[in-house]
Automatic annotation (TrEMBL):
Residues 8-216 form the Major facilitator superfamily (MFS) profile domain. PROSITE patterns: MFS, SUGAR_TRANSPORT_1. GO terms for cellular component: plasma membrane. This is MFS transporter. GO terms for molecular function: transmembrane transporter activity. Belongs to the major facilitator superfamily.
């Protein structure tokens, strides 16, 4: 029997395909960003470090809120934060603005983790480990493809920002796709038993699982 959440899973995986590109975009465009931000390689490296700090800042709270309010809102929130990052980096003229954008990208990673890992476990209860390990494959796919794209941009003497815009466009289209996809029930949807009924031990399909592990 076909799983009705299969299209949802495909959309979730594509978010991590773009995430794989996002985490190395600044590293591969370091020379161009040095000129734009009027800084050195050390300054760009500081901005890159903001992704990890941003991720850690909201990881736990995002997972807790995802169990309460659902997976889809946090996936969409993560997508929105990533879109701001892709656009903001291109318009940033100082490392301070760029650092804020990088911090936002780190938060986006946590929001995606909070919604995606539990969603896949709830959508594929018989093979949750396989469903989640495929995330790594899509991250690696994005990191494999991006250097090729940047090489083509350099060869064609085109603006480096097209790599950021391409990643943002893929994520935007994917977000619109996910808005139309069904998501599996989450613990917050499980109705509590009425007072008149005998208490029944609640069964949770998923809790705060896999959120403390890094995506990379």
């Amino acid at each position: 029997m076909k799983n009705r959440y299969f299209p949802t899973a495909v959309g979730l995986y594509f978010n991590y395909f773009v995430h794989g590109m996002g985490v190395i975009l600044m590293s591969l465009n370091m020379s161009s960003l040095e000129q734009q931000w009027h800084t050195s390689a050390a300054g760009v490296s500081i901005v890159i470090s903001s992704l990890g700090i941003g991720r850690l800042s909201v990881l736990l709270i995002a997972g807790m809120l995802s169990d309460r309010f659902g997976r889809r809102p946090f996936i969409i929130l993560g997508t929105a934060c990533y879109l701001i990052f892709f656009i903001g980096i291109l318009y940033a003229q100082t490392i301070f603005v760029a650092y804020a954008c990088g911090f936002l990208a780190g938060m986006a990673n946590s929001f995606l983790d909070a919604g995606t890992y539990p969603s896949l476990m709830e959508a594929f209860p018989r093979s949750p480990s396989t469903a989640n390990i495929l995330i790594k494959a899509f991250v690696s796919g994005g990191q494999f493809l991006l250097p090729i794209i940047i090489s083509l941009l350099v060869w064609a003497n085109m603006w480096f920002g097209w790599s950021f815009l391409l990643a943002g466009a893929i994520m935007l289209i994917n977000a619109l796709f996910l808005l139309r996809c069904p998501f599996p029930p989450y613990p917050g949807r499980i109705l509590k038993p009425k007072i008149s009924q005998a208490p029944v031990a609640g069964v949770h399909h998923c809790s705060l699982i896999d959120l403390i592990s890094y995506t990379l």
